[in-house]
Amino acid sequence: MLAASSSNPGGQRRSPFSMLTHNRQNRPYDVWLVSLFAVHVIIFAFVVWGTAMTTPYLDMLTWQHEALEALRVNDGANWLHHFLLPHNEHRIAFERALTLVDLEIGGGHQIAFIAASLLSVLVIAGLLWRTLSEGASNRERLLALLVPMLILSSTSALDIGVPINCVYPISLVFSVAAIVLFARAVTAQQNVAPLFAGAILCALLSPFSNMTGLGIWPVLLWLGWQAKAKPSILAVILSLAVIETSLYLWHDSTAPAVHSGAHGIAALERMIAYAGIFLGLPFSRLAALALPAMVFGLCLGLVALAVLVNDCLRRKTATRASLVSTGLILIGLGVALMASLGRLNENVELIAPARYALYVVLLHAGLIMRALVWLRSRPCYVGQSDLKTATGLAVLLVLFQMASGLAGIRAASDLRAVVLSWQPGMEDARYVKLIFPELSYAVKVHQEVKDFLSTR
């Protein structure tokens, strides 16, 4: 476990500023890393502020309409139906709850969604940094700042500022929490029952923001096998996975239309291409970088697969940090596979929306975590090469944060301008695309919300 390499044998709690107290020779890199981290976080905050959308559109209008219907009926059976009612193929209980909070308290301005998404991303970043920092030296804790820098990126900020994307960070915070708690449980020596219970609870809750949360179950099974957990634990996880998945997928929503899809080699080629595009996010969103980004994404996927295969072949004793890194890699690859299977339709253009980039960011974080864990085990772990490399990576992350943040703010500004410019009676194609396919429905919901708020 990480405690084996601890430079803090007394287990005393340390201030984050203690990272700056080791070797004077390394002090310039210490200051640079901490300063770059601070700049990165400040830019992140500006991007969240600059992309914030406070006017509902598309699915958010449906959420508001259904919330108002539930408030009108207001009985126990209806509330249960409301929270568990499928939205497309997803069950979005958390979003339905946030819609109620936003209408009751927030005046329908979507602030509840932005706050919940922001909290989710901050918790993910904190959990991962703490996992790497437990029992670590000051130098190791400093290097670990690269992981929250990855999580607190402009790509994450877009999922925060645009409330309709809140389904991803809210689902992922439960998945990451489940992984962290499970890793703690299987590496702890005592008091493991509460940790297992917490991991199971988080895993159960993860799909109720987005269906991709169901992918946490095979991840926990993999981690349990890797950590040589008791067969009874694996049996419990498998049983709960089958039960929740079966109940989750059993619903009365209209089945999607069936289209002719690719078959055979064509289907495999299409899956591989889309997996590369997905794993190449956010760069694959740029037309000029689409092909190199797809190649980069495929290479990234091969590296991740090589890490997993190496784990299977060597079966070394897993540490807490290595288990968490494996879980993040599995989430990234698993969602890429799910997305690729969903794009087998030949009529669907091979484009990965930028809102999916948060899953790829977790894959990046998992690989960086694994690299840091490997670095700690090297006998030549001395000198300044690691700090120099980390500082270089931090500089690149800040530069990317600035460029992508500016692009994100511009895109959000354009979207906001269209949404705010729409008025009842306007039938332009861009409004049909961005406001709602049936603009009469949007008019109806806006009036319903206005009438409801006028009675508050």
From TrEMBL:
Highest taxon of the lineage: Bacteria
Membrane-spanning segments: 31-52, 111-130, 142-161, 167-183, 195-220, 232-250, 262-283, 289-309, 321-344, 356-375, 387-409
Keyword check for Membrane: yes
Keyword Transit peptide tagged: no
Keywords: Membrane, Transmembrane, Transmembrane helix
Protein name (Swiss-Prot/TrEMBL): Transmembrane protein
